[in-house]
């Protein structure tokens, strides 16, 4: 017999971490893991913990069949607030914004205020209302499970709450790896927990717990091999097995037991056995739940099962007692997991399934709001294909109107896979899909759907050009597909002679210089054609669409008139599409400003782009702006928490080239500044520097510069020169010298070290940059002249150039290169024997340390020691006690990355003996026994460990 109360296996440390974070509000706990790995079980165990006694629990979850109903998951959780509000403090006036959404809380909410006439303002007021309710209820734990299935509105609301949780609120979110990651909240307890599959020993323990007796090691090894260590799959597999056979099975017997058993088949068999043991009414209500596929009330289940009201309760209680169903929400019932539901569904004979789906349609049609997506699915499975198409398209339209582009895109892709659609339906839905595709983050699936449409004879020739254009625009965002994308867009432009507006969009994209290795001269020819289209149209939407490509394109190549032209673009919009294009303009211009050196302007445009895109349902544009924001933070020295932010966004946008490349670059640059060579190399490789024709060009150039700089820091001068040559080759082929600001100083330093003529390179760059709007490149040339002078031992002129460069970098602002220029300035003064020059290095070391540039800080301290100067004793200097000192934090991070003492000594310019002392202190303070145990910590985890 299989136990239903088996102990939690392999999750003790995770549970302790979640409990600790949940009782230290404000806190945000993110639990990530694949389907079946045990996220819900962990939450269940958490809610049983006595440490949470006295806390008010509010729980909601995303549903796999999403309806276009914004904020649904959070509102579901707040439904339970009514049991706590009588004892809470009075609510303020903003909570009236919740009254239309939660009328059952009307006794405690204030009157609903009138609309502010602005969607963004109304949304912000609603978010504040939710925050106020949580604040009044504290201490409260808000749990939202299955974030990956939540509607976009719920995700935005949860991001708002997570950014600054109420003072006595803990927020716990679970999601699969496809779910959205959240930025750590400032001033709050943050925990990101990834649940991993069980190992072989943990699999054995779980199977033994479930079967009520120990299983053999051979059986456990094969069970782990077959199940991948996923707890749910282990449970569902073990439930069908004989405990005695498993306990004594050798490897051959274990293989016989498990050989050929696919998990879905075992689940179906288990479901069939469970159903066979149920009385007919309980079986019928279980089958009804399987057909509905979402948690349902007893009334709805009974109606669909065809049971009289007086028998529904008894049938449902039996199904619950026999573990065929569970209560998922208050008085709503379903299955523990999707696989469990699918297993039951598969046992229902085909004609019966079809009849249940047919009967579900009129029942669901009576609900408010009408669940259009569910109706579409039930109609399709009932064989009512015309109704399925009608409901499905209506659901897609509703999702689009609600700004839930992900749901709308998914619905349209499903509809278009229907071979029964006629030509007019295909044309209409294909156009809708193509219009949505470029603003969502689902890329590969949609691109494949568009590719299939292009080979579909039902798609009319009139619309083929538009579909091909949309496919090309999607391909250009995917790693390794830029050349294919340009080909598709070129063909689309040829096919769109009858649609000059759409052709103009394709032409504008072909004019964008930041993709691939195409020479800038070709881009300029396309941009001139864009200008002609703009001059000959009065369509405001088209003008914004074209400007969103052409203006940032000209700014990227250093056109001195481009930024001024941006100032003439009106921010007035009259439609959601115009707002999306305005958001795209701001995002693309922000990116251009970041690359050429207008850093302050880049920051302000990132903020406006995110605001514009958030208010019109354009998640892809939000992603572009967020990744540009990370780049801008790197450039402007806002490095605190930047690595975590970049990693979080990279996990979310890994498949989208413009974002993933830029984020990988920033992570590589951060790692280089900290002396983490292996990590930096891995991040730079992800940018694609060796395949520039299918990468983002300025990112590749910056990666070449980063790699060369890393090599120079380890005195690998020949390798650094070779890497700089690769970057310069691409720069010259592309012809966009506005992007040379990061590469030029590194290349000049490398050339000087190996004895090559760097003066000719500087002269070439000056000719190319002279007439461009390229502040970063212009400042870099000052630094290049300083490097040249220093290598000629003309330290007076070198000092002059380095000083001018540091001031100019500060003006951008660009604190890290400014500090590097000041370091060079100090070295020039030291070389000239200026009094007090040595004392500038401790100051510089502190400046680098504040930024997080570990290696440069250590280098400056080493230089100061090498001069023989003594750092004066400072009375009252802070003692760190059991906390890690800044130097120990550097050592701990390098230890966690697997560096040896020798490597740490090299990075931090310390003696081996000093490193040994720091390592011992780190292990003692973190209460870990070995370097291997320390490697389990990283980033935030190191800080958490230090405070234990």
Please outline what is shown here.
The chain is mostly helical and 948 residues long. The chain is built from 47 helices and 8 strands.
Description of the structure:
With 948 residues, the chain is mainly alpha-helical. The protein has a 5-stranded parallel sheet, with helices on both faces. A 3-stranded antiparallel sheet has the order 6-8-7. Helix 5 links the parallel strand 3 (140-145) and strand 4 (169-175). The radius of gyration is 31 Å and the shape is globular.
- Mean of all residue-level pLDDT scores: 87
Overall geometric form = globular
Give the number of helices. 47
Q: What Rg, in angstroms, do the CA atoms define?
A: 31 Å
Q: Give the structural class.
A: mainly alpha
N→C terminal distance: 42 Å
How many β-strands, per DSSP?
8
Sheet with most strands: 5 strands, parallel
- What is the helix fraction of residues, given as a range? 55-70%
pLDDT < 50 stretches: 259-263, 936-941, 943-948
Strand content range: under 5%
Note the topology.
Layout: H1 12-22, E1 27-32, H2 39-48, E2 56-61, H3 72-78, H4 119-137, E3 140-145, H5 152-163, E4 169-175, E5 189-194, H6 200-211, H7 217-227, H8 231-238, H9 243-248, H10 251-258, H11 263-276, H12 280-292, E6 296-297, H13 298-305, H14 309-321, E7 326-329, E8 332-334, H15 338-347, H16 350-365, H17 372-382, H18 385-401, H19 405-416, H20 423-437, H21 444-454, H22 461-475, H23 482-495, H24 500-510, H25 520-535, H26 540-556, H27 562-566, H28 576-596, H29 599-614, H30 619-635, H31 642-653, H32 657-674, H33 677-687, H34 697-713, H35 717-734, H36 743-754, H37 759-769, H38 775-791, H39 795-811, H40 815-831, H41 840-851, H42 854-866, H43 886-896, H44 901-908, H45 912-926, H46 931-934, H47 940-946
Parallel strand pairs: 1-4, 1-5, 2-3, 3-4
Antiparallel strand pairs: 6-8, 7-8
Helix pairs in contact: 6-7, 6-8, 7-10, 11-15, 12-13, 12-14, 12-15, 13-14, 13-16, 16-17, 17-18, 18-19, 19-20, 20-21, 20-22, 21-22, 22-23, 23-24, 24-25, 24-26, 25-26, 26-28, 28-29, 28-30, 29-30, 30-31, 30-32, 31-32, 32-33, 32-34, 33-34, 34-35, 34-36, 35-36, 36-38, 37-38, 38-39, 39-40, 40-41, 41-42, ...
